[in-house]
Structures are given as C-alpha cells and as structure tokens.
Amino acid sequence: MAPILFGTSASVPFRAVLMCAKQLGLNLDVRNVDLMAGEHKTPEFLRKNPMGTVPLLEDNGFYLSDSHAINGYLASKYGKENDPLYPAKDLERKSLIDHRLHFDSSLLAGSGILITKPLILENTKPDAKALERLNNAFRILNSIFEIEKSTFVVGNSLSIADFNIISSLSSWKYFLPCWEKDFPYLKAYLDKMAKEEFYKENLEGLSAFNHLVEIKLK
C-alpha cells in the first residue's frame, strides 16, 4: 500500500515532499485537502494531525507532519542505504543537511509564511519588515553558495534539503522583484534545479501559488 500524502499543490512544503518522492521513485497516494474550505481543521483531520497543517503523511497507520521530517522519513525508509540524499552513516553530511532543513523551516520558509499567511487568510499586504526578513534569508543562502562554491545546498550531491529550499525559493522569490540581480548564486542554483526531472513536481503547484498571490495582491 502506497504511503498517503495529504495536502494541496499550492502549498510550498507539500511540493517539497512531491519532489522528494519523485527522486526516490516512490509512488504516493496523493489526497487533496481544501485549505480554503477548512478541511485541515475538521475533527477527522485533527485526529491525524493536531497541528492542522499540510503536508501530512500516513504510512501504514503512522502519521507524520512537517515536510522536513517527512522527507527525512521517506529517504531513510525508502531510499538506498547511505544514499547521499540523507546518509545515515555520513555524520558530517547528514548534519549539514539537517542544518539546511532547519535554516529553511526557521528562516527561509519561516519568513515566507509571515508574508503569505496574512496575505492569503486575512488579505493583509506584506509590510517592509516582513519583506526585509525574507530578503535577509535569501542573502544568507546566497552567501552560503558563494562561499562554498557548491552545486547543491550541501556540497555537490543532491540532498533532501534541496527539495525544501527549491520549493521555498521558487515560491517566495515572487515577493523580491530584484532577486535575480541581488542573488546571482540563487538564480544559478534554481536555473540548474529547474532542469532536473523531479522539478516537474513543483510546476503545477507553483503556478497555483503564484496565481493565488496575484489575486490577493490586487
């Protein structure tokens, strides 16, 4: 029985899991959750995930939320032994991957959510402070690529951290119109990632995300 993934394609972290599963060659039973209709706040959903968030993974009665945790679980359970995606036996690489995952959840995605959640749910336009926080997250990540001269977010091999970073960058760059000029290393990185087969899993949801943001900003 394929693992079940609950969510919606416009969700930034949901797309990170789709890309990870694609790279692993793992088929998921994807089930749409209508956030605008409040399906993530129903008693049935909250019994599975008291946080009321997507994505949510169900795997043979095991429930796990948060895309960063989900991708670590999927790579560990369904990936190849000591796969560079999330290598159990390479402590230094695994620790750097964890660092990038925490960077995304706390700063990059954390900054984006502070913009999109009020915008989508409350029709509140992003303020200068929120945009500066997002810009700072982009700046730090651009510096990491510049200093380390790496192809991926950790070294020169793809990792599960790339999926979250790709989804976050491709979505929240919408709010930074000068990002290509200001952060050339991030542009080069995204351009390269867009050519990967797994990136196709990001396209439909990214288009839906951009469309929703456009409507809310009018």
Automatic annotation (TrEMBL):
Gene3D superfamilies: 1.20.1050.10, Glutaredoxin (3.40.30.10). Residues 90-218 form the GST C-terminal domain. PROSITE patterns: GST_CTER, GST_NTER. InterPro entries: Glutathione-S-Trfase_C-like, Glutathione-S-Trfase_C_sf, Glutathione_S-Trfase, Glutathione_S-Trfase_N, GST_C, Thioredoxin-like_sf. It comes from the Eukaryota. Residues 1-82 form the GST N-terminal domain. This is Glutathione transferase. It comes from Hypothenemus hampei.
